[in-house]
Amino acid sequence: xxxxRESRLLLVLLIAIAFALITVDIRxxxxxxxxxxxxxxxxxxGPVENGVAAAVDPIGNAIGAVRDSGERHDRISVLExxxxxxxxxxxxxxxxxxxxxxxxxxxxxxxxxxYGIKGAEVIAIGAAQGFSWTxxxxxxxxxxxxxxxxxLNGDGLVGRVTTVGPHTATVLxxxxxxxxxxxxxxxxxxxxxxxxxxxxxxxxxxxxxxxxVKKGDRLVTFGSQANRPFVPGVPIGEVVxxxxxxxxxxxxxxVRPYVGFSKLDVVGVVxxxxxxxxxxTVLPPKPAGPKPTPTVTVTVNPSAxxxxxxxxxxxxxxxxxxxDSARSGAPLAPLPGRSPAAAATGDPSPDPDxxxxxxxxxxxxxxxxxxxx
Length: 373
What we know:
By secondary structure, this protein is of the alpha+beta class. The chain is 32% helix and 19% strand. The strands form 2 sheets. It has a 6-stranded antiparallel β-barrel with strand order 1-2-5-4-3-12. The N and C termini lie far apart (207 Å). 20% of the residues are buried. The model is unreliable at 351-356 and 364-373 (pLDDT under 50).
């Protein structure tokens, strides 16, 4: 149809008629004059609509299913991601608590030595083929880190910074064979140099070949000039073996480091040295020795002669106290005409050697016979 004046007038007229019919239909309600026409149209076009709907619905459902499948897939992906995040959060609770304990311990160590530190996390370890013990931390020159700074954690000396980038830094660990640090013995102040030996104990050369060292003695860092690369007083470890001196100028001892180099996580880089040497104050307290077990000793004293076990005085058969001579076990004095042996045994017969008469027998048997006569 060409766009002419008549066609535009016809379109306007049809729109006006449509609005008029709609207005009349709404106002009339159930008595609308167009209700008959509506019913006639429903009767004619209703079956056609049902047929078309029955034919088109399967296609529409398929299209809807294809359209909704993307949304369902996205929803499943979101749920799976949320589930994975929840599992990771729950699984990291123990690690979070462990790291919090390490950080708290490191802050206490830094506070004891008055070290100004900047915390860092170990994000990588050195290449195994490089035969070196190094780690990479997640702070660098933009965080104020410089080469030859001391690195520690809550247990003691970790190493020193060797390479610095804008956002990361490399730390040479104290157990690396190329690592050397000046040491000072606790209390005795004996000086030496500790060298790493990989996964073995540190080797320490004491400058005094006659130094008195024993197992369990502890060492700290001696410190460097201008506190680079080492600040003083950082715990290193304790002596586990002492080699005989053998008259050498130096003496070798082996020290087990406090730091576990295979399980590093949170470390601190010393960016500000202490004003004074902390000496031995940063060392951990020594474990208390075993408490002695209390013992009870029971002493039994034998009863004194002439006393009962309960301490009362012993008595004879008649209830009279036993004489002191009997209680003491002293021999009885012999009666006249009796030998000491007879007195001791209680025999009343006279001693044949003394000839003492028995009072029950006559002195002379012949005299008795004459009297009878």
